[in-house]
Structure formats: structure tokens, C-alpha cells
Amino acid sequence: MRTLGLDFGERRIGVAVTDPSGMLAQPLETIQCSRSGDDVHLQRIADLVTNYEVGRIVVGLPLHLDGREGQAAERARDFGEAVAERTRVAVEFLDERWTTLEAERVLRETGTRRRKGVDSIAAAIILRTYIERAPS
């Protein structure tokens, strides 16, 4: 079963997906969020869920360093609920502290100076962490 990983941001959503076995995570794309109040980004996610035959979705949960949830985590939870409603696929949340920093490090190490790919790489890191923590 494939799992979709989402790194939610107010302007961009990083997307990653596992291989069919659910064991390997790879960056997929970055979705731009619309400012007009429509939900084009939710439809794109729903299309990806259908096209990749996704059975589970993991959304990064931005917690404070001390583990508390703030406004960003609340927005991520609202987003996750909207995704679950639109796709009819179970959504789980995973602590995403440090994923953007790790994604930026990966880009630096590969010689990529553009920030363009950081969101989908962060989503892949969220997904990889989820896979590593899942019970065998």
C-alpha cells in the first residue's frame, strides 16, 4: 500500500509518496496554495491519491521545540481533516520538527541551491520517519 506524505505550509505543500511496497519514500512535487480561498490544492491531493492508489496519508505536525502544539499545528490539523474529508483516506499526523532544516541540508549536500525542492524533500523526510517508526 502506498502512503502519501504532506509537508503543509500556508503557501506551499510538499508532497512525497512511497513505492507500492510502502517501504521507500520519494519526493513527488510541491503544490502552490491558492490565496483565493478555493481548494485547488485539495483537489490536486485527491488526484494524487487516486493516481497513486494511496491507502494512507501522513501530514507533518509542526510542534514547538518543547512538544507543545501552537497555531501552526492547529492549521496543519485542520488541513489534515480537510484532506481526509476530500480523499476519504485515513490521515495520520507526525511530529515534523527539524524536517525543513534536514531538507535544506540535503539540498546543500547535493549542491542544489534552489529552495524549490525543499518542501517535497521535507515531505519525503516526514514519510521516511513514519515508515521507520511503523511497527513491523
User: How would the global form be characterised?
Assistant: globular
> SSE string, helix = H, strand = E?
EEEHEHEHH
Total number of domains: 1
The CATH topology corresponds to Nucleotidyltransferase, domain 5
Mean pLDDT: 87
Please give the radius of gyration in angstroms.
14 Å
Helicity level: 40-55%
Number of helices: 4
The CATH superfamily is known as YqgF/RNase H-like domain
Please summarize the sheet with the most strands: 5 strands, mixed
Could you give the order of strands across the largest sheet? 3-2-1-4-5
| CATH class membership | Alpha Beta
The CATH architecture category equals 2-Layer Sandwich
Structural class: alpha/beta
Number of DSSP strands?
A: 5
Please give the alpha-carbon distance between the first and last residues: 14 Å
| Relative strand content | 25-35%
Contiguous uncertain segments of 5+ residues? none
Characterise this structure.
This protein has a single domain (2-133), classed as YqgF/RNase H-like domain (Nucleotidyltransferase, domain 5). Helices cover 41% and strands 26% of the residues. The protein is an alpha/beta fold and 136 residues long. It starts with a strand and ends with a helix. The model has no long low-confidence stretch (mean pLDDT 87).
Brief summary:
The protein has 136 residues and is of the alpha/beta class.
Task: Please supply descriptive tags for the structure shown above.
single chain; 136 residues; alpha/beta; Nucleotidyltransferase, domain 5; 5-stranded mixed sheet; 4 helices; 5 strands; 41% helix
